[in-house]
Amino acid sequence: MLTVPPIGIVVALPAEARTVVRQRLEFESLHELPGGHWLTVSGAGPENAHGAASRLLDHNVEGLMSWGCAAAIAHHLLPGHLVLPEVVLDEEGHAHAADSAWLRRLSTSLPSGLLSHGGHLIESARVVGTRAAKASLHTSTGAIAVDMESGAIARIARARCVPFLAVRAIADSAAMDVPRAVSRALNPRGDVRTAVLLAQLALHPLQIGELIALGRAFGAALRTLYQVRRAAGSDFRFIAPPEPR
Q1: How does pLDDT run across 141-184, given as a tens digit for each residue?
Q2: E strands, the chain, in order
Q3: H helices of 59-130, where?
Q4: 220, 80 in Cβ contact below 8 A?
Q5: How far is 160 from 106, CA to CA, in rounded Å?
Q6: Residue 185 confidence (pLDDT)
Q7: Which of 40, 50, 169, 179 falls between 20 and 30 A from 204, CA-CA?
């Protein structure tokens, strides 16, 4: 029987973690998955992601995966599309390659109807929420999507010489603005403060339509992640099955 080495999965938000496990996990929680793999909910941002990845490596995982949502900065990506980047670019301009064998195995396991894209994913330490900011980032970097955690996870994977992979579903397109009410309601770990959000929407009711559109897009991203989870199996395609003789 083939033994799969354990991997560690970093997820920023509890809602994203629900695409991997059924129960709701709290921030900074550590959850053991079947097969000896581990998942942790880091909170948003590179510092939280770095700390979470470090904790996973303390559990002797042999690979790190960044799992969750991203914002499109290229117009051909739509909500619900999957991004499996070959390269993650960090804010310091360094390029971190995904493990090519792991990426290939996961890619070939996906359902045929799931729209998946390769390319470059760029790191940002803050939310890139406007169409103008997305367009500028795409033009300056050539990346197709942006998130706040994958760069930090890629850096520590490289430093500790373990394989790395990012799995990201698009939650807002390049043509979408994240409502300011949402941006102002987020706390540093990515939680929405409901009272602040409601107060902002009362002051700016025209943003309610934008919020509904963002909610639908986020739902499409979560459905995609759930499909990937089912297709990846319990081993997340970390180790290829033995070739038939």
Answers
A1: 999 999 999 999 999 999 999 999 999 999 999 999 887 867 77
A2: 8-11, 30-32, 38-41, 64-72, 82-83, 87-89, 95-97, 116-117, 120-123, 145-147, 164-172
A3: 100-108
A4: yes
A5: 22
A6: 64
A7: 169
CB of 122 closer than 8 Å to CB of 146: yes
Predicted TM-score of the model (pTM): 0.89
- Other C-beta atoms within 10 Å of 161: how many? 6
What is the per-residue pLDDT across 38-85, written as a single tens digit (0 to 9) for each?
Answer: 999 999 999 999 999 999 999 899 999 999 999 999 999 999 999 999
Structure tokens at 185: 């309601």
Amino acid present at 213: A
Query: Which of these, 245, 202, 239, lies nearest to 3 by C-alpha position?
Result: 239
Q: Residue 136 CA to chain centroid, in angstroms?
A: 21
Q: How many CB atoms lie within 10 A of CB 79?
A: 22
Domains present along the chain, CATH in parentheses: 8-178+216-232 (3.40.50.1580)
Evaluate whether 217 touches 171 at the Cβ level (below 8 Å).
Answer: yes
